[in-house]
Amino acid sequence: LARETEAILMDEPLSNLDAKLRVQTRGEIINLHRKLPRTVIYVTHDQTEAMTMGDRIVVMNEGVIQQVGTPEEVYHRPANVFVAGFIGSPPMNFFSCVLEDDGETMTGACGEIRFQLPVSRVTPRMRSAAGQTVIAGIRPEHLFVTKDLAQPHLWEASVKIVEVLGLEQRITFDMAGSECTARIDCTEKFFVGDAIAVQVESSAFHFFDGTTEENISLLA
């Protein structure tokens, strides 16, 4: 900063700080970046730092660029399974799924779970993948759980882990052959072993090619 270079390179500068000091120093760096007309390249393994500090994020895996975009783009429009699983805490839930196309509507079949997809979310690549096994992904905030089994739901499960984090709680359970996590508020208390009904926001599903793992559900 003192040398007034045109570009500033930072390689995990906060990795050795304790949690509280890391948050404080992160804020200082953000304020400095806003005041100084400099390009800053910041390397980190901490997705929170990347999402809160970056104007544009380059997600890399083993030295290969997976996606370049704003924090909102890499979160809401992940290019592939790696990006979808790396960005987000807890990460996206994944299932093995078969897409079925009757010429008008498309249905996702993940084990015993079947759900109809909104026509507005169906892409040409999804129709091309009809009948094939793909990877379905949904973020924890788009899964809803309740102990009221009379409510309309797609799946019944048993709670395996409960993590209470103040305003929200994370409920882990098995769904369609995979371990899943839901992020919900704390209005209803859950305990390990509780029987739950799982509701799914089907419009929030992402679908990835079973071979290339590329996102085939992105609209242009």
What are the segments in which pLDDT stays under 50 over at least 5 consecutive residues?
Answer: none
Mean pLDDT: 92
DSSP strand tally? 14
Give the CA-based shape. Answer: globular
> How far is the N terminus from the C terminus?
40 Å
Number of helices: 5
| Order of SSEs | EHEHEEHHEEEHEEEEEEE
Structural class: alpha+beta
Spatial ordering of strands, largest sheet: 7-6-5-8-14
Largest sheet: 5 strands, antiparallel
Compact description:
The protein contains five helices and 14 strands. By secondary structure, the protein is an alpha+beta fold. The two termini are 40 Å apart.
Notes on the protein architecture:
With 220 residues, this protein is an alpha+beta fold. It is 19% helix and 39% strand. The protein has helices at 19-35, 47-53, 71-76, 81-86, 124-128, and strands spanning 7-11, 39-43, 57-61, 64-69, 93-101, 106-110, 113-117, 133-138, 143-146, 155-165, 168-175, 178-185, 195-200, 206-208. The strands form 4 sheets. It has a 5-stranded antiparallel β-sheet with strand order 7-6-5-8-14.
